[in-house]
Amino acid sequence: MKPLIAVPIGDPAGIGPEIVVKSIANKDVFQAARCIIIGDKKVMEDAIAFTKIPLKINIIKKPSEGIFEENVINLIDLDNVNMNELKLGEVSGMCGKAAYEYIAKSIELANAREVDAVSTTPINKESLKAGGIDFIGHTEIFGALTGTEDPLTMFEVRGMRVFFLTRHVSLREACDLVTKDRIKDYVKRCKDVLTTLGVKDGTMAVAGLNPHSGEHGLFGNEEVNHVTPAVEELRAEGFDVVGPIGADSVFHMALQGRFNSVLSLYHDQGHIATKTLDFDRTIAITGGMPILRTSVDHGTAMDIAGKGIASEISMVEAILLGAKYSPNFAKQSL
Length: 334
Description:
Blueprint: E1 4-8, H1 16-24, H2 27-32, E2 34-39, H3 41-51, E3 56-59, E4 72-77, H4 93-111, E5 117-120, H5 125-130, H6 138-146, E6 152-157, E7 160-164, H7 171-176, H8 180-196, E8 204-207, H9 222-236, E9 241-245, H10 250-255, E10 261-264, H11 267-278, E11 283-287, E12 293-295, H12 313-333
Parallel strand pairs: 1-2, 1-5, 2-4, 3-4, 5-12, 7-10, 8-9, 8-10
Antiparallel strand pairs: 6-7, 6-11, 11-12
């Protein structure tokens, strides 16, 4: 049986509904997964109309009621959007609240093991705030609703996997967070995530923070004081990890297959490497949770919402990656 993937439609005023419609019509998606869409019927009918893709909507209450045939959208309709108030491309509290409710329903299904993974579409932080939702993004929502204190983010693109030691903090604060204890903790947790995905062989590389990894303290001592000691202690404990390796070469080496993953030491270090390689196919996986979540790594693109020109490539890749990893994830989670 093909994996069951829950797909919340994201912010109704953004491109989420459109890329969901286009993805459901994609033959690779149909062959790899059984998709359960969580959204609003009226919003999806509108997206079908302006994309001119002839899909049929099948309203269901639970995933087991799905009709998994080509060109059929199996939709759990939360009926939470007033179309008279919906303005595509604009920040809206109604849409922020609706987007949160779609995600929450998806997580509920995954927590109950009614679906094998969740593949998310973009949401808008301003709309969330306007809707009274006290979360800044997907990761925080998933963490709270799965009881996960600090979920890990991993990007995958063309087989290259990148983890992040820090996320949305200033560069100054990110540098201060590069400590031996934090690196050791993250490497161990990243290894656990890889295991749940079925990636058990290979070496993890830790990127350097400073140019040329600081040249033994000539310009920056984070590598000398923190990164190298962390790697040495991890290796002594039996972990297959190397580093620090200069950030100007480590990602290229990982792409060649030298490493099964890279621990990036700050947000943009890894984002630039992956998105420059292939922006559309850089997919986020949230790890360290009891459920599997994959996601597009682009925004709501409010400027093109409703025009029928949004690319579905990232959404397609997110669903395919969820389908790829969910069998291994299920085995490790038993």
